Amino acid sequence: MKRLKKIFLFSVALVALIYALVFIGHRIVFPMPVAHQATIPKIENKNFSLGAASHKQPQTTAAYLKVLAEQVKIYNQKAPELWPDNNEINQAVITQDVTTQKAQLITPTGQLKPLSATELKKYHIAGPATNGGWSKISTNGVSGAYLPIDPNALTNFYTFQRYEHLGTYDPFITFAHELFHALPQEKWATSKFGNRERDERDTDTAARKKRMLLQQQLALAISEPARQTEHLNDALATYADYQKKNPRDARATLLSDRLEGSAYYYELKASLYAGYPQQIKTEADVQQALSLLLKDDNPAYRDSGAVIEGYAIGAYAGILLDRLAKEKHEDPNAWKKTLAQDGETTPLTLLQKVANPAQLPAAKPVPSQKEFEHWLAGAEKIAPKGNAPQNFFNFAYDLLY
Q1: Cβ count within 10 A of residue 268
Q2: Residue 4 CA to chain centroid, in angstroms?
Q3: How far apart are CA 389 and CA 34, in angstroms?
Q4: pTM, whole model, 2 decimals?
Q5: Alpha carbon of 57 to those of 123, 157, 293: distances in Å?
Q6: Cβ atoms of 18 and 8 closer than 8 Å
Q7: How far apart are the first and last CA of the chain?
Q8: Which ranges constitute the DSSP H helices of 294-346?
Q9: Tens digit of pLDDT for each residue in 34-62?
């Protein structure tokens, strides 16, 4: 009996020690980078003022929930226009403050309804209650997403200011993006594309640099409409050269270009409508805002890796497909229907077919290692990822607290 008591006391002491060490490590010794004000300026012209610095940011969960409720309301009003035969409509959100554990239901019309702990259990939430976590909800008469709210994250600009297309703390982005994977894409034709293990192929530095160049050229085609054809042809020349000289990597990036690229395309448009309802009301507004945003080369997904690159590359190709359709007086939904029906397509491969220039220019030189690192460093200043100890204690803190 005494031995069991000692084991029990030792176990309690050990658990207490672990909690104390994680608390001290995360909050005092290795805290994550924090910025309580925007560290990048607003992006603006005579028509728009975009980015986190353009908003008065909420400081509490209660204040933020009013913002999120309005974003959900506007999203559901616009959702039928965002994708043909869109089934990501009439979507609700269940939020939970990770500190207080208080939960709220946001209806598709933007109404806030408190949920007791007993009521919350009826929705069978499966996702982690940590910042950035989520899970799909389809039960108890509600379809939508569970989104945890972290009061510390919503006051730390480093966690969300890179999402200039929304301009606020970012759970709405998870809502729009992840439900696009879970709802519309679930109805799409099956794809035989590989790299389902999501290997970023970081060691293939030649391919990573070429994809960086491709991303930049597509962004220029959007941000400089007067030179769209020139920049688009440069991008297509880079892609053709990449397919020829880096065939293994080219095959490994198709799935992400297809799935993550189209989801990010959807996220961009949904977020612009939801984040800037007083400024962005029409498709024309969206296109003008995208041109403005991409003059900054968009830090949201300025990253290197076979999968992560697909977000921007696929999305930018989709935006250009929209613009080419408008120029040719064609249906801008045609490429989206083809993408859904043909599992062996991506927005970029469709862009190749639609643009189809008579002759491509010579491929531009691949950026140097110094240029590559400088480009990536620009995003790190906007959204520091933290070092290894900071990330370890941040993970442990989220897990325990």
Answers
A1: 28
A2: 51
A3: 15
A4: 0.91
A5: 30, 9, 20
A6: no
A7: 32
A8: 308-327, 334-341
A9: 999 999 999 999 999 999 999 999 999 99
